Amino acid sequence: xxxxxxxxxxxxxxxxxxxxxxxxxxxxxxxxxxxxxxxxxxxxxxxxxxxxxxxxxxxxxxxxxxxxxxxxxxxxxxxxxxxxxxxxxxxxxxxxxxxxxxxxxxxxxxxxxxxxxxxxxxxxxxxxxxxxxxxxxxxxxxxxxxxxxxxxxxxxxxxxxxxxxxxxxxxxxxxxxxxxxxxxxxxxxxxxxxxxxxxxxxxxxxxxxxxxxxxxxxxxxxxxxxxxxxxxxxxxxxxxxxxxxxxxxxxxxxxxxxxxxxxxxxxxxxxxxxxxxxxxxxxxxxxxxxxxxxxxxxxxxxxxxxxxxxxxxxxxxxxxxxxxxxxxxxxxxxxxxxxxxxxxxxxxxxxxxxxxxxxxxxxxxxxxxxxxxxxxxxxxxxxxxxxxxxxxxxxxxxxxxxxxxxxxxxxxxxxxxxxxxxxxxxxxxxxxxxxxxxxxxxxxx
Length: 445
What we know:
FAD/NAD(P)-binding domain; Enolase-like, domain 1
């Protein structure tokens, strides 16, 4: 039997890779992990965490205005640099925690770029190490447009290191990253224009929620231009001019492209080893996260499937238990709850109304649009929408959707109910907490 330096080498110390490494080590495996950048991956450094901190920071603009209706007065000021510095301090703290977790688990950390030499060998900064299994968890990177002047465009990563707030921001794309960052900067006083090639924002989400959110964003001052694409970017003095395919031009200080993410597989040597890649460069894996080369595995965004941090973590756990343990930890890809932390935030779990009609013989739809009590004494006119989708055949709730303050926290709880198979009758029999927005879900008739 061939002896290797490790039982497992993990390439990429993001959420999925670190979780897989820790579980494998706890199960007795000899584990090493390599990372060329900061520990924690996209989520900790240029994704979920700093974005949510920015969302919190920007939402105070609305909260402080609401406070006037409750008797508070005074003129607050905002310091972008302080927000940035405090965000950096928090990210550094999390980086240190990741390091401590790896160290405590007895996992050897190698810093540097990794390349696979063969099916059991990884070269890291010139030094080769071998392992029985190799796990790729290198995540993804923001996609750039293939247009003239593309080098003038920035990606979501640049937002987290901006030295100063721009006056005008052009956001290309209308997925969750585009809307979240557009909302943040709009709340901070930036003139935001969103340009999207589709007929509506947030493709794949429930149509009622998409349209509701569109209206709420425009009410806050975000300009949304649909069925339009940017064809060229040109430098015009201190500004950048975007030429659109409808003949119009837009001037901006900060062109941000949020048009999706590409799996980080370049330079890893995968194709030379016969590892099958998908059309967009993601590693193709089976139900146990094994690639076309049996000793090479992949989890998380690099597989180009469900690009969510908790999913990557779950996949890392599945992998570790499958190959180094005995338990059958499995991920259920149905009914994965997700949120868009724009303002107002949107959260959802289960089927959209359109999807339900394709999966169920008959569907019942329950919907409510209302003004939250918190805004009753505020000048802000933001509305909340909640929606339940029910399979009429067995009364089972197959979709829960909400756009409004606290949506993510509420939908997370409802995801548990759906996982347990709750019916509309169960929702109806549940006593609501009054007065809350959450109680709307148990009073829908």
